[in-house]
């Protein structure tokens, strides 16, 4: 019987582990999610996860053959196949997840940093098709950045290149989760714009639709909603966020000379509200030699699928390129 090759993408999160099976055309054929059992020994959890992946594959029937697995985490090291110092998991400092899953499945397994996975996802299935120099900036809880230079993901010495979210943009600015002050992600992210609105609405009544919303219930989605209704505070918050992001991206262009910057993640769902001010300030601060050489686009992959499709794209890319290079 002729069989179709598929791969598994596993997104290991602090609360849930999501996984899906994807074919070469980028179709998500099956998807499942289980709680990440941080109190279970990590080897036992990975065994349980492997069982769930087997079950999901069986549900598709025998036509499909699993050829590779890719696992993503914010601190995944592609060089070592480990997840390092994941602050949201109670597991040891360096988890050898690739080695363990390889032993269970007897298939190629890679570990990918989630921003890099998003970049490969855009290259293989998204708006960066055919591009060799681009950035994918994920605007979620934090700000992640996957960098592709001359057709290859930029990894750096330890596989941690592209930490644009922790480039400091404001002296003595907002306190960041990394312990320092003024990092880009404290301004330009879904949580950053919430902090901006809270600063703007603190104290006196401003007449904004966002006045008096409890700190913990304010979201980027609510700010988007208010901006679409013409709320001044919400619109100023987008302008401020776009100014900080666009200015930082102008500096990044000077370093990497990309032809495209893709914005993705929760805050990118606000569409033109974030795209327009980002473009305005990017162009305003761009060195003249880069004028009209760099486009900024919003991702067209639904945020729900970004992680799994990006992980699947990464393992397809690995199977077609890196593996061949090693064996030739
Ligand atoms: Zn930081």
Protein model, in words:
The chain has 328 residues and is an alpha/beta fold. The protein has 2 domains: 4-119 and 304-327, ATPase, nucleotide binding domain (Nucleotidyltransferase, domain 5, 2-Layer Sandwich), CATH 3.30.420.40; 130-300, ATPase, nucleotide binding domain (Nucleotidyltransferase, domain 5), CATH 3.30.420.40. It contains 8 helices and 13 strands. The protein has helices at 42-60, 97-105, 114-125, 190-201, 220-228, 232-256, 272-285, 303-327, and strands spanning 4-12, 16-23, 28-35, 64-73, 76-77, 82-84, 94-95, 109-113, 134-139, 143-149, 152-153, 260-264, 295-298. It has a 5-stranded mixed sheet, with helices on both faces. A hairpin with a 3-residue loop joins strand 1 and strand 2 (16-23). Helix 4 (190-201) packs across helix 6 (232-256). It is globular and about 65 Å long. The two termini are 29 Å apart. The model has no long low-confidence stretch (mean pLDDT 91). Zinc ion binds at residues 166, 176, 178, 180, 183.
Determine the fraction of residues in helical runs and give it as a percent range.
Answer: 25-40%
Distance between the termini: 29 Å
CATH topology of the largest domain: Nucleotidyltransferase, domain 5
Mean pLDDT across all residues, rounded? 91
What class would the helix/strand composition place it in? alpha/beta
Number of helices: 8
The geometry reads as globular
Q: What is the strand arrangement across the widest sheet?
A: 3-2-1-4-8
Low-confidence residue ranges: none
Q: Biggest sheet, in brief? A: 5 strands, mixed
Strand content: 15-25%
């Amino acid at each position: 019987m002729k069989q179709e090759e598929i791969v598994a993408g596993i997104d290991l999160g602090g609360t849930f582990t999501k996984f899906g099976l994807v074919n070469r055309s980028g179709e998500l054929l099956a998807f499942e999610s289980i709680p990440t059992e941080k109190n279970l020994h990590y080897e036992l959890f990975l065994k349980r996860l492997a069982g769930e992946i087997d079950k999901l594959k069986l549900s598709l029937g025998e036509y499909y053959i699993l050829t590779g697995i890719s696992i993503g985490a914010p601190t995944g090291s592609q060089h070592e196949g480990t997840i390092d110092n994941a602050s949201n998991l109670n597991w040891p400092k360096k988890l050898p997840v690739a080695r363990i899953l390889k032993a269970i499945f007897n298939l190629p397994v890679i570990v990918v940093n989630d921003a890099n996975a998003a970049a490969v996802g855009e290259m293989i299935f998204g708006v960066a098709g055919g591009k060799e120099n681009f950035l994918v900036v994920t605007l979620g809880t934090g700000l992640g950045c996957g960098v592709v230079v001359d057709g290859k993901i930029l990894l750096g010495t330890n596989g941690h290149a592209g930490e644009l979210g922790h480039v400091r943009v404001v002296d003595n600015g907002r306190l960041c989760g990394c312990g320092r002050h003024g990092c880009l992600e404290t301004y330009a992210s879904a949580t950053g714009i919430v902090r901006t609105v809270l600063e703007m609405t603190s104290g006196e009544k401003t007449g904004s639709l966002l006045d008096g919303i409890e700190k913990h219930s304010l979201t980027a989605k609510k700010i988007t909603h208010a901006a679409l209704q013409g709320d001044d505070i919400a619109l100023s918050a987008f302008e401020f966020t776009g100014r900080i992001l666009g200015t930082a991206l102008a500096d990044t262009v000077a370093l990497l000379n990309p032809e495209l910057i893709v914005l993705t993640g929760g805050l990118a769902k606000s569409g033109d509200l974030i795209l327009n001010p980002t473009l305005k300030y990017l162009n305003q601060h761009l060195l003249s030699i880069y004028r009209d050489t760099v486009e900024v686009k919003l991702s067209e992959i639904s945020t729900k699928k970004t992680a799994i499709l990006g992980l699947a794209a990464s393992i397809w890319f690995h199977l077609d390129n890196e593996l061949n290079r090693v064996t030739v």
